[in-house]
Design goal:
Elements (H helix, E strand, L loop, with lengths): L2 H15 L5 H6 L2 E2 L4 E4 L2 H8 L3 H12 L5 E6 L3 E6 L1 H12 L13 E5 L13 H17 L3 E5 L8 H14 L4 H4 L3 H14 L1 H15 L3 H24 L19 H10 L3 E4 L2 E10 L5 E7 L7 H15 L4 E4 L6 H13 L8 E4 L5 E2 L16 H19 L5 H21 L7 E2 L2 H4 L7 H17 L16 H11 L1 H11 L3 H20 L9 H22 L9
Helix pairs in contact: 1-4, 3-4, 5-19, 7-9, 7-10, 7-11, 9-10, 13-14, 15-16, 18-21, 18-22, 19-21, 19-22, 20-21, 21-22
Length: about 575
């Protein structure tokens, strides 16, 4: 059920029939309200162009709409058309939602999507900067799958390159000293810092590290064995964060930089065949129109460096090639920071020139802003290091536990632990997802953990309040049978909002802005609270009691599904 589409189709058809050429534009600008009221307010402009009376033109439109069983129609003011959904239509539409396990959301035409998100560097632990890509990308994946699309998660992790030479040399040194590597690798960040510091201070070690890079890229068995051990441990660290953050990525979704290593020479050969490569200062580059550097000179896309090595451009081209030809994706979405905008523009442009991307395929960069501290500086530790994501998550749970302890001390220790985890992690994710994807936002503990305002705790609490209605009377929501009987304005308002769930879901994928769903859920929770205050539920007599219980259950289902699509859990009481 898509109320917006229903109204638009009917009104557009009626306007077009009476000769309003720009009917679609008029309908697009029409005013809609959450009470099921719709005002087509472009009639006057159309009447002026037709040199006719606005009210007469409006009357012709109403005549075409006829005596509609779903809509109440009237002309208002100088030529507005007021359209209101009838109670019987709303009741029948709600029944359709009630009987739909998808809450009335239609599946889309099935297409293949590759979603590139998270992509940590396996040389060190995930940090706060990975929060945005990981949570935004995972929500996109959940929504696309809910809409019936085939989605391939692509975790393009960094597991190759010069930095691994230091790490492998350090591992080799520790092993030769009899150190237990598994214990050393428990804190990847310290391990990485130790290896980097040794690289800078010890020239012999630095020379050894550089030789390990060559040996690794050459397939040396000892280096590969050390590398695999490190990668396995680093992947385990990432998976622990994903599990705690309720992210759907698993180890099977990793297709790392190293997976494309053997294809890189082939990419160079194919670009040469297309006569795209130009040698510049010993490097093999592609120069394309529209890419100009700071000095107003053509900006090269470096495919192979003068020393024979391959930069990120080559690896990313190989990834495009794989996703376009092997997977044959219809759309590929890159949830990557805004600072990579130029790089990805070049990648897509070179890939298109090389013939990797077909006319039926769409590659999109979906950038996002920074996570900032209260002083509008990047979220880092006092010494300038990136804040570990696992530390942020643990602090969120600890803070939530203190709040739960104050709010509901009667819960058992195990219940408090569960609620704290759900509330703390939910607060972190919702604070991220409720913002416009492209803007920076300030990370604020007090705001995100508040039980008031547009926050996860507020929505989670709204869900538990609804569940408490059924729990108080020992009623199973699934055993309530009856019809929707709408008489109060608060009921109409709630009914219309419930029927707009599909619009919110489809609105997300227009530009992958999860805040559309967040705002919808916040509005829904607020409208429900107003309904609950205005319309007695348990003390009402039938048919109102049954109808209002059905509205409560449908609201709870919608909140639960909406939060689930955001990757946020709920609890039955808190």
């Amino acid at each position: 059920m898509n109320l917006k589409q229903l109204l638009d189709d009917k009104v557009t058809a009626a306007m077009t029939t009476v000769g309003i050429a720009d009917a679609k534009a008029i309908v697009k600008q029409a005013q809609r309200s959450e009470f099921g009221h719709y005002q087509a307010n472009g009639i006057m402009g159309a009447a002026k162009r037709q040199k006719t009376n606005p009210r007469e033109l409006a009357a012709k439109v109403l005549e075409q709409l006829g005596d509609d069983k779903d809509l109440q129609l009237e002309i208002a003011g100088p030529g507005f058309i007021n359209i209101t959904l009838k109670p019987d239509f709303l009741a029948e539409a709600l029944k359709g939602l009630q009987n739909s396990h998808r809450l009335g959301v239609d599946t889309a035409q099935s297409r293949v999507f590759v979603v590139d998100y998270s992509a940590p560097n396996l040389a060190k632990e995930m940090h706060i900067g990975h929060l945005r890509s990981t949570t935004i990308g995972d929500t996109a994946v959940r929504v696309l799958e809910f809409l019936g699309q085939k989605v391939i998660r692509a975790n393009h992790v960094g597991d190759w390159g010069a930095q691994f030479g230091s790490l492998l040399a350090y591992m080799d040194q520790l092993a030769s000293q009899g150190e237990e590597l598994s214990s050393e690798l428990k804190d990847l960040e310290k391990f990485y810092q130790s290896a980097s510091a040794l690289f800078r201070s010890d020239e012999a070690f630095a020379s050894k590290a550089r030789s390990f890079v060559v040996r690794l890229q050459g397939g040396d068995e000892k280096c590969l064995a050390l590398w695999k051990k490190f990668i396995a441990e680093s992947t385990r660290h990432c998976q622990a964060v994903y599990d705690q953050l309720n992210i759907t990525l698993t180890a099977s979704d990793i297709r790392a930089e190293s997976a494309y290593n053997d294809v890189l020479p082939l990419v160079v050969d194919e670009l040469e065949e297309r006569q795209l490569l130009v040698e510049s200062d010993g490097a093999k580059c592609v120069f394309l129109d529209g890419f100009i550097g700071k000095d107003d000179k053509p900006l090269p896309a470096i495919i192979q460096k003068s020393d024979g090595g391959y930069p990120y451009m080559a690896t990313d081209l190989a990834a495009v090639r794989y996703r376009a030809s092997t997977i044959n994706a219809h759309e590929v979405l890159y949830f990557v920071g805004a600072q990579q905008q130029l790089h990805l523009r070049q990648v897509f442009a070179v890939a298109t020139a090389a013939g990797y991307i077909g006319d039926h395929q769409r590659f999109r960069h979906l950038p996002f802003g920074w996570v900032l501290k209260a002083d509008n500086t990047p979220f880092k530790t006092r010494d300038g290091a990136d804040v570990k994501l696992v530390d942020v998550l643990n602090e969120a749970v600890d803070r939530a536990h203190r709040l739960v302890d104050e709010k509901n001390p009667g819960l058992s220790p195990e219940e408090k632990k569960t609620v704290a985890r759900v509330v703390g992690i939910g607060a972190i994710k919702y604070a991220e997802l409720s913002k416009n994807r492209t803007t920076d936002y300030i990370f604020d503990w007090d705001t995100m953990l508040s039980f008031e305002g547009n926050t996860a705790p507020y929505l989670q609490y709204a869900y538990t309040r609804i569940q408490s209605i059924f729990r108080r009377e020992n009623i199973s929501p699934t055993e309530i049978h009856g019809e929707f009987h709408l008489t109060d304005p608060a009921e109409f308002r709630l009914a219309v909002k419930l029927l707009q769930f599909g619009e919110a879901i489809n609105g997300i994928i227009e530009d992958y802005q999860a805040n559309i769903l967040c705002n919808y859920l916040f509005d829904l929770a607020g409208i429900f609270m107003s309904f609950y205050e205005a319309c007695p539920v348990l003390k009402a007599t039938d048919p109102h009691r049954t109808s209002r219980l059905l509205l409560c259950h449908l609201t709870a289902r919608t909140l639960h599904k909406g939060l689930d699509l955001l990757g946020i859990e709920t609890v039955e009481q808190m």
